[in-house]
Amino acid sequence: MARITLDHLAHAYKANPRNAEDYALKEINHVWSQGGAYALLGPSGCGKTTLLNIISGLVRPTRGRVLFDELDVTDLSTESRNIAQVFQFPVVYDTMTVRENLAFPLKNRNVPRDRTARRVEEIASLLDLTRVLDRKASNLTADMKQKISLGRGLVRPDVAAILFDEPLTVIDPHLKWQLRSTLKEIHRALDITMIYVTHDQTEALTFADKVVVMHDGAVVQTGTPEELFERPAHTFVGHFIGSPGMNILPCRVEGSTAFVGNTMISLRRVYRTLSDGEHIELGIRPEFVRLQPKGAGLPVQVRRIDDIGRARIARVEMNGRSLAASVPDGISIEGREASLVLDPKHVHIYANGHLVAGEANGGQTS
Ligand SMILES: Nc1ncnc2c1ncn2[C@@H]1O[C@H](COP(=O)(O)OP(=O)(O)OP(=O)(O)O)[C@@H](O)[C@H]1O
Prior knowledge:
The protein has helices at residues 48-56, 98-107, 113-126, 142-154, 173-190, 201-207, 225-230, 235-240, and strands spanning 4-11, 25-32, 37-41, 63-68, 71-72, 83-86, 161-165, 194-198, 210-215, 218-223, 247-250, 252-260, 263-271, 280-284, 289-293, 298-307, 312-318, 321-326, 337-342, 348-351, 354-355.
């Protein structure tokens, strides 16, 4: 079990990288605490697998170091790093029984037979595999085989960390939600550092205590699911997390007022530091925007209203830009013209994509 430190880590697949665009992974400094449950979340191509492969030792970084506790492992092979990995597709021995498959990583390391047997029973019970322990793996479904792969990853109690690379890809959708919460329970039971790579926000937010969001080769925010929702540090995080994602509107800001077109929006904070050359945007989640009949607020045109069970969401348009808003109970809109009212507590201001803290009216940054 280990704390994992990424120290000035960067990676370029091309030789002699010159500028930021040449790097698949831009410089990262990060500490994964011992025993933490982390998700590495981002769209395809953002560099997740590259980072995971650097931690596991499959890829040597162009720059920087990887430390497991105090030990520099940058030049150590995957085998000597003492980590377990679970991949997208099952890695099982078809000719062996489920019990033999689960025992394999322990047998390989000469763990005594009675300890192996106890651990296999424990892991099988956590993954609900007990009833198939003596069946041959070859006869099982892809779901079951992937559970065995998960079990093989989890069975060694002494690993520095377990790395999961999109482990639920082959799992049947109706079993996915169940396995997601099972993995979370397993993390609590085993106290091992776990890093879970996914492009699926639901998987990341269910599994992880801390989510590391990547975009275009860089970490744009590390935070709890609540922090990512309440205070996205980058417009990408606002847009990528949430369903629907955060509304982003170009604006102009003067002190504590934002101007979106001709509409003035009062802000809770004061923004004195924005400079002229920066691209300024206002971000607010649909949950904090109310659709109202035409009147005060941002003038919009309603395209449609979706009933998503727990709420009604309006899809609206403003100057060719699509936005989403909540529809309060009892509101009915005649025709297409309507207004949006923003809750100032949840309005964020971004400069060139990055959150600007602003100052509270008392003069403190917040
Ligand atoms: N072996 C390689 N050689 C050259 N470029 C690579 C190599 N592996 C990945 N890349 C590039 O590095 C970037 C990051 O890829 P990476 O696979 O790490 O992203 P990812 O977020 O894991 O995406 P996915 O979920 O699709 O695997 C991409 O632009 C990809 O094309």
